[in-house]
Model the fold of this input.
Amino acid sequence: MIPLAPASIANKFLQEASLWKPPVDPRRICALWPTLSVVTESLDKSGYLLDLGHLGGEIIIRAEDPFGRQNFTIAHELAHWILDREEKVDTKKVPRTELEQWCDAFAKELLLPGNWIRDYLRAGSVKELWYRVRKGHRHFNVSREAFRRRTGEISNTSILEVDRNNGTVEFSKQYLSRKSPPPKLRDIFRVIIGQLDSNSFVYVYTDSLNTYELMGRVVRNDGNKRSFLICLVPSSSLD
Ligand SMILES: [Zn+2]
Done:
């Protein structure tokens, strides 16, 4: 058991590196330790930490990975370094799965702090929210997938990716809000199915508990296949 909360350790090092807003460059946090370096190499896996004892350490990351993915790898390996060197956790006694989960959680908290995402998404209109969701991964310098998953975890915005291919419609990805669980997907499906002929739609959906704003726009259109990005948020949270 690691008796430390990933969020508070991540927050501590953001402050030490004087990082107050996105995007977080994890290399700047690595620079807090003069003997810790980051190098890129051609690798099979995404990366690893090479502990060089009293000489320090090297975080080695895969050269072929996109920048956002590399950032996540650096943050993950940095977590191993911090647990060993700064927090003096005897990580050899921690079960492997727990250790890796802790490092992943740290990486998320470091690159995508919950309150930064909520501040970023909080905007006047659902239209503006849609654009922020669309561009969020660039704003935070992470992968699109990481940004959208995290948004579902810590905000009241749900994100759906929908493909209409000839006659069929499917939810290709879904990042449902844990804070404000949206209506059932089949109910959303009934709402959007009639909207997919237009390039953009805003819809107010009410169920027995809540009213939601739903906005969708085409993000890809190649002949028979049209892909939509859809955001769904309780109306009350747009006040
Ligand atoms: Zn690891």
In short: The first helix runs from residue 6 to 16. Residues 76, 80, 100, 103 surround zinc ion (CB under 6 Å). The two ends are 41 Å apart (CA to CA).
